[in-house]
């Protein structure tokens, strides 16, 4: 299912607190049951919380005919499917390394007023930026537990092999594209989105931590929110005070 209905989520929570008569009134308005069916609800004192846990076998065992049994069972299953799972608060980290390095080179260059100046962006820039990816991971985790290995996506050139050795040794799942390949940046964005969607669809909701500074990941963010995930976007802060100064935007 592509998205969850807020109405179904709200109704499932309401039904859970219904007493027997409130449940009967709700079912009378939504299902094609007859009075003898509701008499069974009264006889067995079925409340909303009990009702949502009942199975086909349960309905049959207390005297419901096959038709009402299937209607009630399907109704319950539909409510369960349309109610998002609770959030585990486990953290899943995704890093766009190309974006992280490029933005960092401008932020650091502008604060240190280096010799190189990019007139197009009206900003100073440094030629190289070396990051401690272990420290980066600790920064975004902030003492929280990970749900899976962190994912990093970027491009490979002759002078950045050590990045990928370092990240692999730290347990990162790495996706690397050669710098001269066609549509490299688009492939990086697409790969990160694909990896993120796979995690979202196959895991109980947690916290999606995205280290990137552009808006190419809106589809991933929208998907995560639909599936009851929390989202954090980490990006370089212009208030550069340390070699690694990131700001976090929380989306829930």
Give the helices and strands, then pairings:
Elements: H1 6-16, H2 20-30, H3 35-44, H4 48-51, H5 56-61, H6 66-81, E1 91-96, H7 97-112, E2 117-118, E3 123-124, H8 133-141, E4 151-156, H9 161-169, E5 173-178, H10 184-202, E6 207-211, H11 218-226, E7 230-236, E8 246-251
Parallel strand pairs: 1-4, 1-6, 4-5, 6-7
Antiparallel strand pairs: 2-3, 7-8
**Total of helices:** 11
According to CATH, the fold-level topology of the largest domain is Rossmann fold
* Quaternary assembly: single chain
Strand order of the largest sheet: 5-4-1-6-7-8
Q: CATH top level of the largest domain?
A: Alpha Beta
Element order: H for helix, E for strand: HHHHHHEHEEHEHEHEHEE
Mean pLDDT: 83
Termini Cα gap: 20 Å
If classified by CATH, what would the architecture of the largest domain be? Answer: 3-Layer(aba) Sandwich
Task: Describe, in plain words, how this protein is organized in 3D.
48% of the residues lie in helices and 16% in strands. It is an alpha/beta fold and 252 residues long. It has two domains: 76 residues, Orthogonal Bundle (DNA polymerase, domain 1); 161 residues, Rossmann fold, CATH 3.40.50. The strands form two sheets. It has a six-stranded mixed β-sheet with strand order 5-4-1-6-7-8, sandwiched between helices. A two-stranded antiparallel ribbon has the order 2-3. Helix 10 packs parallel to helix 11.
